């Protein structure tokens, strides 16, 4: 498959948000100038990391599955004290699984939330990336631009006692949206392909997440 033509197919699978059938995908291939048999297209879809097969035989992209879905994040005490929230693995599975969390872009009321760098001990940092796999967590941490001076090969791929991590500024939310320690951030993916999310501050005083049956379901 020619790289340029395959790029069009990849773009479709990163942005299309509705269920589609194998025959509909064949039309997409044809529109991109690619001739392929149904079995080859089926193999291509089954091999794609951005597509899931539904029980009715149709397919759905991760962009279609997770765009607009709601989830919440509670900043830890260490994050609240530094005024920074590190996304780490907390946006999974809603965002692209291998996307470096420091490249995610968060918006509130149409305004981009500024980034901020915090410093954490390496054990805490690894916990923030544990869903990527314990063996891969140090690589994600080292890939953060805040650690550009960290030479993992020189250190035999061991993290130092403390590392820097890029996150969104809780100070900005405190100054402009009355964020306080104990509040949650309610998030939803607005553009899966670009890694952008919308955020709102859910104040602890009016949050249903930690109370009653709703809180029990969230914890479960």
Low-confidence stretches: none
Largest sheet entry: 5 strands, mixed
Give the overall shape: globular
Helix coverage percent: 25-40%
- Which secondary-structure class do the elements indicate? alpha+beta
Structure notes:
The chain has nine helices and ten strands. It has 220 residues and is α+β, with helices and mostly antiparallel strands. The strands form three sheets. The chain has a five-stranded mixed β-sheet with strand order 3-9-10-5-6, with no helix packed on it. A hairpin with a 2-residue loop joins strand 5 and strand 6. The longest helix is centred in the N-terminal third of the chain and has 13 residues. It is globular, with a radius of gyration of 20 Å. It starts with a helix and ends with a helix. 27% of the residues are buried. The model has no long low-confidence stretch (mean pLDDT 91).
Key attributes of the depicted protein:
single chain; 220 residues; alpha+beta; five-stranded mixed sheet; three-stranded antiparallel sheet; 10 strands
How would you briefly describe this protein structure?
This protein is of the alpha+beta class and 220 residues long.
Chain-wise SSE layout:
Layout: H1 3-15, H2 22-31, H3 38-47, E1 51-53, E2 59-61, H4 62-66, E3 70-73, H5 77-82, E4 84-85, E5 105-108, E6 111-112, E7 115-121, H6 122-128, H7 137-142, E8 162-169, H8 170-177, E9 184-191, E10 196-202, H9 212-219
Parallel strand pairs: 5-10
Antiparallel strand pairs: 1-2, 3-9, 4-8, 5-6, 7-8, 9-10
């Amino acid at each position: 498959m020619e790289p340029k033509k395959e790029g069009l197919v990849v773009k479709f699978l990163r942005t299309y948000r509705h269920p589609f059938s194998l025959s509909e995908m064949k039309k997409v291939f044809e529109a991109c100038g690619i001739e392929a048999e149904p079995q080859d297209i089926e193999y291509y879809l089954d091999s794609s990391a951005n597509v899931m097969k539904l029980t009715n035989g149709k397919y759905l992209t991760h962009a279609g599955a997770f765009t607009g879905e709601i989830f919440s994040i509670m900043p830890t005490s260490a994050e609240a004290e530094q005024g920074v929230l590190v996304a780490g693995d907390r946006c999974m599975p809603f965002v692209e699984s291998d996307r470096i969390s420091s490249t995610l872009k968060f918006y509130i009321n149409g305004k981009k939330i500024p980034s901020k760098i915090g410093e954490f001990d390496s054990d805490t940092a690894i916990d923030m990336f544990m869903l990527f796999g314990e063996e891969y967590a140090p690589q994600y941490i080292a890939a953060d631009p805040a650690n550009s001076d960290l030479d993992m090969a020189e250190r035999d791929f061991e993290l130092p006692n403390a590392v820097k991590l890029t996150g969104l500024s809780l100070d900005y939310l405190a100054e402009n949206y009355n964020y306080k320690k104990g509040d949650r951030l309610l998030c939803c993916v607005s553009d899966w392909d670009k890694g952008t999310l919308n955020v709102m501050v859910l104040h602890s005083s009016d949050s249903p997440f930690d109370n009653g049956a709703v809180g029990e379901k969230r914890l479960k």
